[in-house]
Design brief:
This protein is mainly alpha-helical. The chain is built from ten helices and no strands. It starts with 7 loop residues before the first helix and ends in a 5-residue tail after the last helix.
Length: 197
């Protein structure tokens, strides 16, 4: 062969002269938001790796990308990559365990580093005891500040289904928090209804 092999990504860039410009605009506008999303779920170095993978996926799928809602689409890709990493980690830990060694995490997750006060740590501990779907819908709502419509896009469900999932997750979180909340605090329901603390 006379020249180097050109992968699909290279050819796409040649066929669509605006692809590089569109990609650069999206990368510049959303890199930090995607990095923060990932850093709230995994340690910093993994967050950087996953964020880079998200934008590699974006480049490969520019022709199928929805420009109307870029951030929820990017979060959805990130969520899939995080789940893949967690599955791989579980398999590795299981294998190491079978071999008689115990793998230990050397870096704290970002929420452990940032949240230092005891009360906040208790809330994070309770959040981590919820199911993975409950954790994700709460994080999308509270940490990422996404509306229900965008949560639905990230999770691959309708807006009403996202609203129901969020409502149920909040109820389960409030129920699990009730033993550690001080008695003088208002109930989560009274706060939702506009009650004063």
């Amino acid at each position: 062969m006379a020249g180097p092999y050109r992968g699909r990504e290279t050819w796409r860039g040649l066929m669509d002269p605006n692809a590089n410009e569109r990609f650069t605009r999206l990368y510049t506008a959303h890199y930090l938001a995607v990095l923060a999303y990932c850093a709230r779920r995994v340690n910093r170095s993994e967050a950087e790796d996953i964020t880079n993978e998200v934008f590699a996926v974006l480049w490969r799928k520019m022709d199928r990308f929805d420009p109307e809602s870029p951030l929820p689409w990017l979060y959805r890709v990130a969520l899939g990559l995080i789940k893949n990493r967690r599955r791989a980690t579980r398999r590795t830990v299981a294998l190491v365990s079978k071999l008689g060694a115990v793998g230990k995490r050397t870096e704290d997750a970002v929420d452990v580093v940032v949240v230092r006060r005891e009360r906040d740590r208790e809330v994070v501990d309770v959040l981590e005891r919820l199911s993975a779907p409950d954790q994700e819908v709460l994080r999308l709502s509270i940490w990422e500040e996404l509306p229900a419509a965008d949560i639905g896009l990230v999770l691959g469900c309708s807006t009403s289904a996202a609203e129901q999932r969020l409502h149920r997750a909040k109820k389960r979180l409030a129920w699990k928090l009730s033993p550690i909340l001080p008695r003088s605090s208002p109930s989560p329901k009274s706060l939702e209804e506009g009650g004063r603390p």
